Model the fold of this input.
Amino acid sequence: MSTKSTGPQGLARSAKRRKVANEDPLTIEQETIELPEDIDPEDELGQLYALHSSYLKSTKESPKLLYAIVHECDRQLRNSKTLLPPKFHKVYAEALSMLSVFAKKKKSRSTPVATGEQSAASSAADSPEDFLLASIERAQIGLETYPKSIDILVVRCETYLALVELRLKNSAKSKNVEGCVSAIQNATKDYDEALKLLTELQRKFTEDGKKDEEDAKGDADVTEITPEHLVKVLRRLSKVLETTLESDFIAERFPDLYLWNEDRWAAELHDAPEDKFLHRGLGEFYLARAYPYVATVESQFEDDNSDSEDEELDRQPSNIASEQAKQFLSKSLEHLYAAESDEDNGAFLAVIAEAQISLANLESEEDKQNKLYAEAIKRLLKAQELGAGDFTDMINELQNA
Done:
């Protein structure tokens, strides 16, 4: 696409090297960017995609290339006389999201930074949250035209998760997290829609072997998302939900979020029952689910040393918490054992040992307790040998238990 413009010049200078004016207000300079020789100098979208690919393959230590991408997206958006393709919106939204990593840690503005003629790169005052909100807005604009774009859905899903991660990191455990709920819910909806569309797309090209090689090659360009990519998105979503368990506001009022996550892991395992990555994801999620109940039980043990007129009544919540903790810990270990292999690093062995110790502490039968302690000691010794930490004190304590 080649259009005349009175705005910033496009990237086409030569087929081999191009100068891109970096209009970041904090750093105004000429940045030399090398693009592959096979990129047509008249193909502005091709050049934009090559820039995006170059950043993904880079060390990602500087935002300069991202600013160049955002400015070029702005320019093409202003000058285009036709609809820009889904990949354009995906690249635009992803660049804005990635810029959040480099933004100054300032309070978010009341309205998100614009993604039109006044780009995200045009203000030095934008916070990380501003860039994430701008990315979500850009993805939404793209989805209004291409509601079935898997790529845009996944970018928006991951940006919602980045927004929640940022808010939870900057908030007290039980404060200011209300805004996270809608973002998580939106992320789950985008994940589900992307999974449904990808499943339909795969079925389309495998059903009865009707598609010939050329058809398949052309249609495969509809998305760059793979099932493996979606599993990684699910893992990130699961980790976000594990973090929310520290917030009573979310954990107590939105239990459906945790059931949703459990169902999605179970569905993935149904299709790939031997997949160790899936087992580990679900196992770690169940372990996180057990933590609040374990904490309640431990708190009750500490209170046992103090006098209480309602001791029997006080023990009832602890008994319920103990059963819930045991249930989640047992499920966790079932999947963590299935995920274990000879190639595991020490950190994962320590995670399994942690779950075993927590379950052993809740066991009333001495034989079961001792067996769990013994297995935990074996894994801690191996984890220590692999350099995951010094567990000497913990091992000695377990041996003397």
